[in-house]
């Protein structure tokens, strides 16, 4: 299970996921940095006015299926290591 981050930048502020990740990396250990990011225009709210976390989770699921949401996903470390080994393999 990957850590996901959905956020709404302040009005007039451009905050790409890479910039936010850099800032979080200064304060958090690497294992707490989200692997999947979603920039939203506004957070969805339920009938009680609270953030609808179920809907946010569903948007992440849909984004994996290519439903048009802005999501970036970094490769997992094992996949990254395997890719490096494949590129560096000189046999």
Walk me through this protein's architecture.
With 91 residues, the protein is α+β, with helices and mostly antiparallel strands. The chain is 38% helix and 12% strand. It has a single domain (4-88), classed as GMP Synthetase, Chain A, domain 3. The chain is built from 3 helices and 3 strands; from the N terminus they run E-H-E-H-E-H. Helix 1 (17-27) links the parallel strand 1 (4-7) and strand 2. 4% of the residues are buried.
Within CATH, the superfamily carries the name ANL, C-terminal domain
Number of helices: 3
What is the CATH domain class?
Alpha Beta
CATH architecture: 2-Layer Sandwich
Strand content: 5-15%
Could you write a compact summary of the structure shown?
With 91 residues, this protein is α+β, with helices and mostly antiparallel strands. It has one domain: GMP Synthetase, Chain A, domain 3, CATH 3.30.300.30.
